[in-house]
Amino acid sequence: MSASAAEPEDIIKYRKNVMKATGAHMGAAGAIIQGKVDYKKSLADHARALEATMRDVPALFPKDSDFGDTGALDAVWSKRAEFEKRAKETAKAVGAFSKVAAKGDLKAAGAAFKTLSDTCKGCHKDFRKEEK
Amino acid sequence: MRQAGMTAAVLLLMTAAVPVPAASAPVSRGELIYRVAGCENCHTDRENKGARLAGGRKLATPLGVFYAPNITPDNETGIGRWREQDFVRALRDGISPDGTHYYPSFPYTSYTRLTDEDLRALWAYLRAQPAVRQPNRAHELPWYLGLRALLAGWKWLYFTPGAYTTRADMSAEWNRGAYLAEALAHCGECHTPRNALGGFRKGYYLAGTSEGPEGGVIPNITTDKKTGIGRWRASELVEYLESGMTPDGDFAGDLMAEVIDNGLKFLTPGDRKAIAAYVFAQPPVEHAVRREKKKKKDESEF
Question: Which residues of A touch B (CB under 8 A)?
Answer without folding.
Answer: 22-30, 34, 66-71, 114, 117, 120-125, 127-132
